[in-house]
Amino acid sequence: MLEIKNLHKSFGDREILKGVSLSLNQGEVTTIIGPSGTGKSTLLRSINVLERPEKGTITLNNRKIDYEALSKSDIHYLRSHTAMVFQNYNLFKNKTALENVMEPLVYTQHMPKPDAQNRAVELLQQVGLNNRHSAYPIQLSGGEQQRVGIARALAVNPTVLLLDEPTSSLDPELADGILKVIQDLSSLRIAMLIVTHEIKFAASISDTIIFMSNGKVVEAGPSKELFRSPREALTKNFLEIALK
């Protein structure tokens, strides 16, 4: 369903992604772990074309796109079929929770406002915010803001949901709530690609784990197998430190 091959991305003279390749199946939760600065978030942002890679291809729902020949139509297609959930929420501060979720429905999907409002209510209910429709971001806890961000991402009916450190700004209790929301979403058969430093979170939520280091995929495999018996020394060393 999603396949990335030989993805390269640099910032100036520094190459961040060095030929990254991966695949993701429908309904699968794949989590990317690894040291800070190894390109995990850049990879997500490249899929959604918030960053533009210099080289590589992405195939999504049988449409193959070459990043070296990226067109406006390609960008629109990728952004229409993927959605980002950011670690710092990225909500509109002057809009209520309901209005934040309505925004992509009205302006991206061109849904009539009454229909968009009804759908936004459903999505907020889905993430456990039944009674916070009229609250502004400043009136919401970090966990509630992240729930609004997830609801807003779901509003575009993405094929792939991209979550960049969805619990990193939250205390453990609030992070557990977001974990429960993501676990519930997995029943909807939406493919999810998650970047996190929370190793226990990754182990509990993931079908597949990808370990990245120095801009490359070092190892990938089923979550239970990789955590129980990593093949590569780099992966083993990282997990021994991260799980202490």
Task: Provide a descriptive summary of the structure in words.
There is one protein chain. This protein is of the alpha/beta class and 244 residues long. Helices cover 38% and strands 26% of the residues. The chain contains nine helices and ten strands. The strands form two sheets. A six-stranded mixed β-sheet has the order 6-7-8-3-9-10, sandwiched between helices. A hairpin with a 2-residue loop joins β9 and β10. The radius of gyration is 18 Å and the shape is globular. 39% of the residues are buried. The mean pLDDT is 93.
Keywords for this structure?
alpha/beta; 6-stranded mixed beta sheet; 244 residues; 4-stranded antiparallel beta sheet; single chain
Give a quick rundown of the structure:
The chain is an alpha/beta fold and 244 residues long. It has helices at residues 40-47, 72-81, 97-107, 113-126, 142-154, 172-185, 199-205, 223-228, 233-242, and strands spanning 2-11, 14-24, 29-33, 55-60, 63-66, 82-85, 160-164, 191-195, 208-213, 216-222.
Molecular shape: globular
Order of helices and strands: EEEHEEHEHHHEHEHEEHH
Number of helices: 9
Category by helix and strand content: alpha/beta
Give the neighbour order of strands across the main sheet.
6-7-8-3-9-10
User: Could you name the ranges where pLDDT drops below 50 across 5 or more consecutive residues?
Assistant: none
Calculate the mean pLDDT score and round it.
Answer: 93
Residues in helix, %? 25-40%
Strand segment tally: 10
Largest sheet: 6 strands, mixed
